[in-house]
């Protein structure tokens, strides 16, 4: 029955619609802690519908574990809908804001150049630092980070992944 | 509505005996304070009994409780016991049990009981008082974050922050607790929410919960596939759990088993849903299950798992569990499917519903060869059991259970505590009537037995049906304070203490797996007979085989609570036994 090869752990993107109620987020996070699922990232916000939040979770695990995880999520009363969109055709985005050291004219120029290539926006410029915003798939954000690291990153913040399906079919709470 | 109409023939009394005005405008729309709204809601839910304990923040509720004589409030001696009593009341009636505790320690005392109900999917509503709204979050006196604490051990919980939300929340709580896979729900109510008034248009008739819609009807194609698989099976076995009881699928289970000639194995929690004496019954599997039951699972080609969740005490080491079987798994909770064991045919739905549909496609069969093979294994088990029973000069616990069954009959409701005595009851009490065995299986909570028997006694309306608890000398001492409750509220539970002077089950593990280092398992206790008498309870002590049946009979007929202490050997073990983490095929049959 069972195959000889060990099941592999992969990243799954899960979209969760949940009631916008106090404690709802707590329940989701608590569930992950309690059952030992690994959250890589989590982002949550309001939706087009009143009182409904949409959460994008990135979970690392074997397929069967992640399936268990979605079933457990469904058991939470506030959770309205759970979809594992990993294998769907989706657009994935993450945003990061990075404050990078730029105290030499050459580094300043290079940072501006890289930003242009990555379609990152310069948000603020100080005497010795530049703050840029990048939005894109995580790989782009990663690569941009890697490029800036050599100048010295003073501070940075990332949103975690958000995802939406391509085409005209809509995933919705109902 | 007049006073008389609202509660015919009843006079409300405070505990001090002072007459109180009855709530006059029962069931009519009006402004009411939260305390009265709660009472109205409980009555509308058909709550007849609740188990509670007062405290500061619950005072507004206790102030008006006497106006509602429809609700019998049992003052327990510890909130944990109230929780277990309500849990058992819920299990026996298949309705919701209700318990209540005050903020802080009252609420935390409920935690073990709530976790117990959660693990065993018992319908329970726990009501806790909370400090006033403006005091929340300030570490106020007796403030505790009980919704936070019980988050992972409730089906859901609520903190009610507005009196106008109270009725709807109670409605939701009761609905959730008893539908789908049942479970405990907690409602936390601040003191001033009890006091504030709100317009109460009557108890809501429906609930809206968009994130909740349990699947009742099974998937037709999967049911058909399952039936086909069963029809082709050479060595089928049914393994059922408590889900059969929850959904009341006794007849459907028996129909399936009898029509297709399939042996039935009942998990600990499933016991009593299928008669133990039925020729197809193989009893309990797993750690202390019969060798024949474990062998039957191991050699089956199709395993029909019904309303159960493949607990590790049932499966033993998963790597060697039912290796050659195709597994059909029927359960109302989709998250149980595939959780521990890979399934060939999953069916999510209410067990009764699914079986009704499936049975239509089941062909009549005879599995003579297969049944004979199992009978061969069973013979060995029967012999071992006979030897256990038949010992002179001591009081074998197995023998006591057998006598209890003979004297009390197949209608008796038995609650158990946790330990060796629990397993002996499971192995030797031949359950006949459905839903007559109440045990903390999932959490294994010592101290469960006595309060559970109180809940069961109040749930069983027919006074002629005996309600007994079989408990250990250790577990009994965890909630023995409830003897006083039995006396004050005239609850006629019968208590059988299996006194071996040790925490027997733990000692057994020390004996077999931990080098016989009997650390902290010898346990003393009071003179249990004198203790009972001190509470005003009739009691007996039994040490001879010849006394067993007559004393059980006498205690059973005694018109009040009664206690029998049985002196059993310290070194007695529960056999067979699968070593923890081991394969069910590697059970040991004696300690030597
Ligand atoms: C609250 C709690 N604490 C500890 C345990 C662990 N435990 C399981 S069985 C057992 C011994 C029970 O002793 P007793 O009640 O005398 O029953 P016996 O096994 O002797 O029949 C213990 C300590 C438990 N199940 N529950
Ligand atoms: Mg003991």
Note the topology.
The complex is a heterodimer of chains A (174) and B (592).
Chain A: E1 10-19, H1 24-35, E2 38-46, E3 52-61, H2 63-75, E4 79-84, E5 90-101, H3 105-117, E6 121-125, E7 129-136, H4 138-149, E8 153-158, E9 162-165
Antiparallel strand pairs in A: 1-3, 1-4, 2-3, 5-7, 5-8, 5-9, 6-7
Chain B: H1 3-6, E1 30-33, H2 34-44, E2 49-52, H3 59-65, E3 72-75, H4 79-93, E4 97-101, H5 105-109, H6 111-119, E5 124-130, H7 146-149, E6 156-159, H8 166-178, E7 184-190, H9 191-195, E8 197-200, H10 220-232, E9 236-240, H11 243-247, H12 250-260, E10 264-266, E11 281-283, H13 291-299, E12 302-306, H14 312-315, E13 326-331, E14 345-348, H15 351-359, H16 368-389, H17 397-408, E15 413-416, H18 420-428, E16 437-438, H19 449-459, E17 467-472, H20 473-476, H21 482-488, E18 494-499, H22 504-513, H23 528-535, E19 538-542, H24 545-557, E20 562-567
Parallel strand pairs in B: 2-3, 2-4, 4-5, 5-7, 6-7, 9-10, 9-12, 10-11, 12-13, 13-14, 15-16, 15-17, 17-18, 18-20, 19-20
Antiparallel strand pairs in B: 1-8
The complex binds thiamine diphosphate (TPP) and magnesium ion.
